[in-house]
Amino acid sequence: MSFIDYYKILGVSKTATEADIKKAYRKLARKYHPDLNPNDTVAEKKFKEINEANEVLSHPENRKKYDQYGEHWQHAEEFEKAKQQEQSKGSYTSSDGYSEEDFSDFFEHMFGGTSSRARGGQVKFRGQDYNAELQLSLQDVYTTHKRTLTVNNKNIRITIPAGVENGQIIKIKGHGGKGVNGGPNGDLYIQFSISNHTNFKRDKNNLYVDVDLDLYIALLGGEITIDTFNGKVKLNIKPETQNRTKVKLKGKGFPKYRKEGQFGDLYVTYYIKIPTNLTTQEKELIKALQNIRK
Amino acid sequence: MKEQDLISVQLLCKRYNVPNSFIEKLQEYQLIEVIVRQEDFFIHVAQIKKVEKLMRLHFDLNINLEGVDVIYNLLKQVEDLQEEIKSLKNKLNRYE
């Protein structure tokens, strides 16, 4: 735990008036407020610092104590503990905002766990929303499955529906921060980060795969076996199949999100493989073919 | 719409300690939808989070309602664009 220079955070001098502090706080709060910077953890951290600085410097009692002990905060406990509690400084909740947990250890040490933001005791507050990221593989999200997550030391068992997308966010109602004074709990938002180490490329419900095709099968036609996401299938290749021919295998793609039993399509692109290390005989035969074509 | 999914504007204002006129203004700016049932005003519970956000912008940041209206709509646009980027990034993965 180290000393925090609240004046520096707000960009004001030690002789700043209450009005200067208010002005500086408002300016910075507008810049870094979480509502204006969604999903920006840097802005969120900065906002918490600004808020904490404002908590101290905008209240004469806190400021006096801070100015008196400041860098020697270890001795601050001797300071008179009684502190006026501001009773009615707006009573709406801050579900996307900050909670008392967001104050630094330094603040907690100097000013105790309860900040002057504490509001009227009878007002119900909704708990804070939590955000979490869940790393999964493409194989994981091919089937609906259950998974246990640990959020704030609590185990939550959730069902992950097949077909969730990379970056998709799902809401688990009531698993966020605890409500205050009987208010409802916040929600838990889980963002999926899906890694793909397969040969398949995914776009929503459709899958794409490249398949090497033997030259002679491409020329004369035949049968090949390819891997789909959940097994092998046999495909008939038409004679004279061209390089980069694309075929669609209906229903062999990825499961559709929350549509049980429905699947996207698999698009297979053929890449004709030209034989290498030709023998003399092969070269002669191909030359003969070339001459026929002339 | 189920009755139990509605919360009275009066109760909401009391809980959050904001004047009724604030909710009226939000409706005026078409930022929220107020439902009238037997001469009482209600909002759908799904809108509470939005109302809280609008309250924070107005009261915490001291932004007037014209500003809140602009900010809210711009944030919505940013959200839509982020969704589009996410979708395009996933599409782009096909070509990597």
Automatic annotation (TrEMBL), chain A:
GO CC annotation: cytoplasm
Pfam families linked to this entry: DnaJ, DnaJ_C
Entry's Gene Ontology molecular function annotations: DNA binding; unfolded protein binding; zinc ion binding
Domain J: 5-70
Domain of life: Bacteria
Cross-referenced InterPro entries: DnaJ_C, DnaJ_domain, HSP40/DnaJ_pept-bd, J_dom_sf
GO biological process: protein refolding
Keywords: Chaperone, DNA-binding, Metal-binding, Repeat, Zinc, Zinc-finger
Name of this protein: Curved DNA-binding protein
UniProt organism field: Seonamhaeicola aphaedonensis
Lineage summary: Bacteria, Pseudomonadati, Bacteroidota, Flavobacteriia, Flavobacteriales
UniProtKB/TrEMBL annotation, chain B:
Gene3D superfamilies named in the record: 1.10.1660.10
Pfam families according to UniProt: MerR_2
Name used for this protein in its record: MerR-like DNA binding protein
Organism: Seonamhaeicola aphaedonensis
